[in-house]
Amino acid sequence: MLNTTLSGGKNHSAAQDGPGSPDLQLGGDVFLAYSVIVAVMTTAVSMLYILTIIALCSVRSMAKTLQIFLINLFSAGLATAVFVALYPLSTLTINWAGIQEPSLTFCRFMVWGYSGGAIARLFSMAAFAVAVLLVVRYSAKALKYAPIVLTLVLLWLGAILLNTHLLVPPIYAVQYVDGLACFPGTVDANIIRPARYTFTAIWILLGGVSPVVVSIVVPILVLCYIRRNRVTQSNDYNKRIAKFALFLVSGNLINFFGQAVVAAIVYSSDAPAVYLSYGIAMISLLPAPILVVIFLKPVREKWRAALFCHCFREKPRVVRPSMTDKTLSSA
Predict the structure, then answer these.
(1) Topology of domain 24-311, per CATH?
(2) What span, in angstroms and rounded, lies between the C-alpha atoms of 64 and 71?
(3) pTM of the entire structure?
C-alpha cells in the first residue's frame, strides 16, 4: 500500500542505471522520501535568504556599497535556492501525477537556471571581496553608485552568457533518470562532443576557477593590509568583514567541488549522482545565511528581532513628562 501511494501507480522498474543497491534507484520510496526532505529543507533555506535580504535592506550601520553587493550576493543565492527546490518538487509532481513523458524543455530550463544561479553566486562573491578591498583600502567613498550598478549588470549578463550553451540541444543534452529526476545527459547523449567539452572548459575556467581564486586571494590580501596598517578606529570591523568574505567562499567551494565529484560519478551510474547532486546543491546554500549572522552583528540583531516577531524598525520611545513639566502645564 505504501509503495502504491508514493509511486502514484507508475512503474519505474524498467529503467535502472548502473550498479548499486536497489534502494539507490530512483523508482523506489527511498528517493521519494529523500526528495521530500530536500524540498522542505531548500524551502526553509529560501526563507532564510529572504529574511537575510530584508535584514540587509534595513541595516543602517554598514557601508552602503558593501550593503548593495551583499544584497546582490544573497539575491543570487535565493535564485539558486528556488531552482534547487524545483528539482525535488518536479520529481514529486511527476511521480504523484503519473506523468509518463516529462517535459525536457522544463528540465533544460531548470538546469540552465540552477547553473546560472551558481555562476552568479561565484561572481557576486568575487565582486563582494573586491568591494571589501576597496572600502578597506580607500574608504567607502571610493565606490560610486554608477560603477556599482554597471558591475552588477555585467555580472549577471556574464552568468547568463556562460550558460547559454545549456539551452542548445546539439551541445547539451538533458534527461529524466528513471523517468523521474531531471539530470544532464551523459554517455549516450547525441551531442556535438567537442563543442560540449569546449564550453564546459570555458565554464569551469571563467565561471568557476577564476571567481573562486579571487574570492580567496582578495580577502587574504585585505587581512594582510589590515595587519600591516593598524587602524584603531575601524580595525575590528574591517577584520570581521574580511573574514566574513573569506568564509563565505565555503558554500561556493562545496558547490564547485561537489559538482566536480558528481561529474566524475555520473559516467558510471546516474542514480548515485542524482542523490549527490541534490544533497550538494542544498548543503552549498547553508553557509551564507549562517555566516552572515555570525560575523555581522547588525544583521544578527535584525534576525533576532524578526524571529521574536518584532518590527525591524525600532519603536519610538515614549517620553513621560516629569513632575516639573506637569507643574508648569497646570500653572
Answers:
(1) Rhopdopsin 7-helix transmembrane proteins (1.20.1070)
(2) 10
(3) 0.78
